[in-house]
């Protein structure tokens, strides 16, 4: 474990090993499993680092984020090989995810420099106002405090030790304590050392970053309950997210948990689109479904086909039958996947349409699966909404738009909702849009939900149970807002104000002055 | 009760009467106490109104808010008299609060027109990007859904039926169901009818606004638990706010509760300020403390005097002794106040310094009270931090700055924190600022915490337990953000996009385009 400056291996601690999901072999070394003592130390250091780290100037903080990115790049092939061994993900995906991770860090560096995240507002004084003079009020955002980040299994880089939660928390000025995912401890250590090296290069307090290994119910719960932790970022299962949210709500001082949990990402195929390009849609659907062996939060797990879906289904079935076997991240995930698919297959009115290849040479082998049902069955069986994490999807043959609207009214909150519409479907699509925007955080036309852009306008979030905090996103620059809160300064002497609040805007940040937006000259 | 278009008085319902706190007399008429059936009907109407109301154009919504303000003004003396009879507040305060309330509605109308609340972000497509083209992504905020507002006892207009929660929710595009406070039902009815008249004038769906009367544990809990309610605004006691938050968290789909609960609003008097103007500070302190009989969330309940506080304390004691008796809002509040003051007086090491006048002619009579203790006692007795809602305050004689910092580290979250500093105190004040900004939502220099500006840069919020949602404010234009969430639109055809997201910014709203802030020409 990397606790501030120290490498920590508690004597006698249990060890956990990663397992190569292709060969099934245990990977060395073993990683010690920490507990309350390690949480205590990491939280104490993070608390001690908070005031110094949050006071860093934007330029210094931006360079620190860029150094983390450079240090990750400098790990080179050693990192890529370790990720592949621990996750079974193919090299191209790992290279892409590394670029996404370092790009994310560099994007947050740009955000920190631009300063919009400070949310500066200035209401000038009016000493002549009657009956009472108006005071001088200035507002900015400050970080909540040290943040606990729970790494995800399925993005060993981009949603892990130096992933989006860590990047946005560090950008906000919050020290970070990461709980690594036991599926990829070696990857976590390599990236953790890259972050720590950047902390040292920039002379930041050691508690700015720590990396812990340990079991979720023990070390993870202790981390959420520590009074010095002010917020939690999590990507994972619904049960895991809800457990953390409950632990956070039960604290003497409750804290926010930003948990991205589960989503089946409904896709609506309107009649014109099905008629115009049904077979092409079928092939593209399965390409999205089988990406990363379906182990993506935005995998299209549910399709509503309105109208003649035969061409679409035939092409999708062919594509699933031709889909190669792929390793799943861990054998536990593989087992849960097989069980989930079997549960779905066993529901009355659900038919298996196709299955992908198996490969006996892959220890934790994932096999694509396609199921079909009709609208009446779907409406009568709530369990058909449950996420099966992996490359399994259910197509619902929907009679007409009225049945589609009735079904949409029963759906849980989602990360994404997608529409495929021909020009002739636009009147129907116009009716759909208000339903989909209340259902999901991202509404797509003509594409597939996998592939989440990292930018300013993206939302990777959505109504419960897609997330525990529907007003937020865990991807993109808006993610920084999760770790900030506004503070108002009334009649504070100019000399004591932070630069971004001073007269004349010396920091050059966007400001809302007396209700009017100013760009800050950038 | 005003449930959409209907005046509802369930046959056989219990009735509650307001009581004039000066005369102690019961005021007519009685107001029916509703329950689950009324919640069901109001929530159903709000749900039915949601899509239509949230689709109103900014100009139409702004005019609706302005009509509510005009209708409240048009109630004239009848409203002022009823407020005075139900609350015992003096006429000047009621007139001021009415102006604050209508000003708030008009300010939110301006906010709706300016459009910054939409949070528009545009990341243009890049079809030539490799390895994958960049999609077109546009983001805006939409309302969460119908909002339940719990009115406060102590601001019968500004934090009640058409107060800040209602104004900001309606501005966000959310229908509102208000639970009136039983301390001022007649005021609530008058204002409720003013809102409903505006709903009708503008041809809005009847469910845009409903007003319910009933008990908190019954009707209030049912309202928070209704699946069609998407968020809750509350101003009141800590126990009340925590009960609503627990009920909201226990729902199958949890929702946010924005509860503004309790605060003692610490004031720090630094040695130079005490030496320079101790007696003047003492008088100003008591003027702030006795405003509204101390029944303000921002009343200065706790003062830390560092250095020679004799002149300050003598002046404060004189002012308290001279403070006239004042009616408290209800006899329940008066009783709780007397009990709280008695508890404080009974703590070891706490001395009563002065008490204000009593008046046997006032049925629910509040009496100002001033207590003093020392830093060591304060640090050893956590109960001295508890809010006594009313004009009671505790002055802590603090030895030095080191003791002050130690004490500040033990304080709960607050709405405000205030510093009085002479020029010679500035080095100490500079050290204090980082402590105070993590403690409170608003940091003041040289003033007193009562009197909360309604503007853009104000924060009326703060860390738990001051509020249940520290990243928000319940006063000022930022309050609108509590009821919004971002949605991202990916590759949605131009013709289907809302105006604020279309090419060329036809709505003229501020936008973040590819990370660069644009003002929208306003």
From TrEMBL, chains A, B:
* MF annotations from Gene Ontology: 2,5-dioxovalerate dehydrogenase (NADP+) activity
EC top class named in words: oxidoreductase
* Catalytic activity as recorded in UniProt: 2,5-dioxopentanoate + NADP(+) + H2O = 2-oxoglutarate + NADPH + 2 H(+); 2,5-dioxopentanoate + NAD(+) + H2O = 2-oxoglutarate + NADH + 2 H(+)
* InterPro entries, A to Z: Ald_DH/histidinol_DH, Ald_DH_C, Ald_DH_N, Aldehyde_DH_dom, Aldehyde_DH_Superfamily, ALDH_KGSADH
Show where the Aldehyde dehydrogenase domain sits: 16-425
Q: List the residue ranges of the region (Disordered).
A: 1-33, 503-522
Name the chain's protein: 2,5-dioxovalerate dehydrogenase
């Amino acid at each position: 474990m990397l606790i501030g400056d120290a490498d920590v291996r508690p004597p006698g601690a249990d060890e956990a090993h990663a397992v190569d999901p292709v060969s099934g072999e245990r990977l060395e070394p073993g990683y010690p499993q920490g507990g309350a003592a390690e949480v205590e130390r990491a939280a104490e250091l993070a608390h001690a680092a908070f005031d110094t780290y949050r006071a860093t100037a934007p330029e210094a903080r931006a360079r620190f984020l860029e150094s983390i990115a450079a240090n990750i790049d400098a790990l080179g092939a050693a990192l890529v090989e370790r990720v592949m061994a621990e996750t079974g993900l193919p090299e191209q995906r790992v290279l892409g995810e590394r670029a996404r991770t370092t790009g994310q860090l560099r994007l947050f560096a740009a955000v920190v420099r631009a300063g919009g995240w400070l949310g500066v507002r200035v209401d000038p004084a009016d000493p002549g106002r009657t009956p009472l003079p108006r005071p001088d009020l200035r507002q900015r955002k400050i970080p909540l405090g040290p943040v606990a980040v729970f790494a995800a299994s399925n993005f060993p880089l981009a949603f892990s030790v130096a992933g989006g939660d860590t990047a946005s928390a560090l950008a906000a000025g919050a020290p970070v304590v990461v709980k690594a995912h036991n599926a990829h401890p070696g990857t976590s250590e390599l990236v953790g050392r890259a972050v720590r090296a950047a902390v040292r290069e920039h002379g930041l307090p050691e508690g700015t970053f720590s990396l812990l290994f340990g079991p979720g119910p023990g070390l993870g719960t202790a981390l959420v309950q520590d009074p010095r932790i002010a917020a939690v970022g999590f990507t994972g299962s619904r049960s895991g997210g809800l457990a953390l949210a409950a632990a956070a709500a039960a604290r003497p001082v409750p804290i926010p948990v930003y948990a991205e949990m589960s989503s089946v990402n409904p896709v609506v195929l309107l009649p014109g689109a099905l008629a115009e390009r049904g077979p092409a849609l079928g092939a593209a659907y399965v390409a999205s479904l089988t990406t990363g062996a379906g182990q993506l939060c935005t995998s299209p797990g549910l399709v509503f086909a309105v109208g003649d879906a035969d061409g679409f289904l035939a092409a999708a079935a062919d594509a699933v039958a031709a889909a190669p076997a792929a390793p799943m991240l861990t054998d536990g995930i593989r087992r849960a996947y097989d069980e989930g698919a079997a549960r779905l297959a066993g529901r009355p009115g659900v038919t298996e349409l196709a299955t992908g290849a198996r490969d006996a040479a892959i220890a934790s082998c994932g096999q694509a699966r396609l199921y079909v049902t009709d609208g009446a069955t779907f409406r009568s069986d709530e369990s058909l909404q449950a996420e099966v994490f992996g490359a399994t999807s259910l197509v619902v043959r929907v009679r007409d738009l009225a049945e589609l609207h009735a079904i949409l009214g029963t759906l849980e909150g989602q990360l994404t909702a997608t529409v495929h519409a021909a020009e002739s479907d636009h009147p129907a699509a116009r009716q759909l849009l208000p339903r989909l925007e209340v259902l999901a955080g991202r509404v797509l036309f003509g594409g597939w939900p996998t592939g989440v852009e990292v930018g300013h306008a993206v939302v990777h979030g959505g109504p419960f149970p897609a997330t525990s905090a529907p007003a937020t996103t865990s991807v993109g620059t808006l993610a920084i807002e999760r770790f900030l809160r506004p503070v108002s300064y009334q009649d504070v002497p100019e000399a004591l104000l932070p630069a971004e609040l001073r007269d004349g805007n010396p920091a050059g940040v966007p400001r809302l002055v007396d209700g009017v937006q100013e760009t800050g000259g950038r």
